[in-house]
């Protein structure tokens, strides 16, 4: 009798209540994540013909790897990510150090600092492009001055990349790539600064005061106390910058459009070009899968580093 009552209780509608509550979320996730992922995998194995879709297997991947522009875009992406993430992380750390000193009107400074973060990539790229447009850009008078940039001045949007130092690897980058890094770093700087500032404020003040009493200077405190205690946050910030730099296309689209030539053609913009300019959706889907795999590897590596750090603590 008791077993029968337990079985009936197990079939009570109340036990299904949690499932019905999360069902809308499950449906939304299936619609915006699972279905597009499965469709992208299917699309990467297809080719569009006048008769319809034709299964081509891994041919899209082979053709993608055979493109010279793909290898060049990988190099541009590496240069962009190293410059963008490194510059933003370093500047964000030093600005957070300044704001952590309880400066006067620090609340106002933080508010003003956050303004670039709320501006869309497209708008930021357009504004930075207008600054350097020849003839009427705000900075064009300085850039086109041959006394400052001999022999004929500098046109950031049209200057070609200097000869490579490492074979086919695109370094040193073109002036447009450097300018793209600066613009992207400017927009991402507020969020990273506030993230690092929050981590700095969790460092126990007693430890810092004790180290000062023991004779440690400011550089030693930052190097041996603050950075080790902030390491998990630094890893998260680096991961966030790398992921946003890998997938962001709006800034490249509005600022350089991949130019001059292909000097700023990163993987995300190459994906846009293949898919929406060439209308080669099969090859674009193959590239999207490769970028997704890179993102997954970045996430797995970040989680592993974070777990190792937590175990060491």
The gist of it:
Helices cover 68% and strands 3% of the residues. By secondary structure, the chain is an all-alpha fold. A two-stranded antiparallel ribbon has the order 1-2.
Structure, described:
The chain has 313 residues and is mainly α. It has two domains: 2-44, no CATH class; 62-312, MetI-like fold, CATH 1.10.3720.10. It has 13 helices and two strands. It has helices spanning 2-10, 17-44, 59-65, 68-99, 106-113, 121-132, 140-143, 175-200, 205-213, 218-247, 250-255, 267-277, 281-312; strands at 46-49, 52-55. Strand 1 (46-49) and strand 2 form a beta hairpin. The radius of gyration is 25 Å and the shape is globular. The mean pLDDT is 86.
Task: Describe the secondary structure blueprint for this structure.
Elements: H1 2-10, H2 17-44, E1 46-49, E2 52-55, H3 59-65, H4 68-99, H5 106-113, H6 121-132, H7 140-143, H8 175-200, H9 205-213, H10 218-247, H11 250-255, H12 267-277, H13 281-312
Helix pairs in contact: 2-13, 3-13, 4-8, 4-10, 6-8, 8-10, 10-13, 12-13
């Amino acid at each position: 009798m008791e077993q029968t009552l337990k079985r009936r209780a197990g079939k009570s509608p109340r036990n299904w209540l949690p499932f019905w509550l999360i069902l809308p979320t499950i449906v939304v996730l299936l619609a915006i994540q699972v279905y597009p992922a499965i469709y992208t995998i299917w699309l990467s194995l297809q080719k569009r013909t006048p008769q319809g879709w034709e299964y081509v297997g891994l041919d899209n991947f082979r053709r993608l790897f055979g493109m010279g522009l793909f290898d060049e875009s990988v190099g541009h992406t590496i240069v962009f990510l190293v410059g963008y993430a490194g510059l933003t992380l370093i500047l964000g750390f030093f600005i957070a150090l300044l704001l952590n000193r309880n400066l006067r009107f620090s609340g106002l400074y933080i508010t003003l600092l956050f303004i670039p973060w709320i501006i869309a990539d497209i708008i930021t790229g357009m504004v930075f492009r207008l600054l350097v447009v020849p003839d009427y850009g705000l900075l064009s008078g300085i850039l086109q001055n041959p006394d400052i940039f001999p022999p004929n001045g500098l046109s950031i949007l049209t200057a070609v990349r200097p000869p490579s130092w490492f074979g086919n690897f695109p370094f040193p980058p073109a002036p447009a790539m450097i300018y793209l890094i600066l613009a992207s770093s400017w927009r991402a700087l507020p969020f990273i600064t506030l993230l690092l500032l929050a981590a700095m404020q969790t460092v126990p003040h007693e430890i810092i005061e004790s180290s000062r009493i023991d004779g440690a200077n400011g550089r030693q405190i930052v190097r041996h106390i603050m950075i080790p205690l902030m390491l998990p946050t630094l890893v998260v910030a680096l991961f966030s910058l790398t992921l946003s730099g890998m997938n962001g296309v709006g800034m490249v689209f509005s600022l350089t459009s991949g130019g001059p030539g292909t000097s700023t053609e990163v993987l995300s913009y190459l994906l846009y070009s293949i898919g929406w300019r060439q209308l080669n959706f099969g090859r674009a889907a193959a590239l999207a899968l490769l970028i997704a795999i890179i993102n997954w590897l970045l996430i797995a590596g970040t989680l592993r580093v974070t777990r190792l750090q937590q175990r060491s603590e």
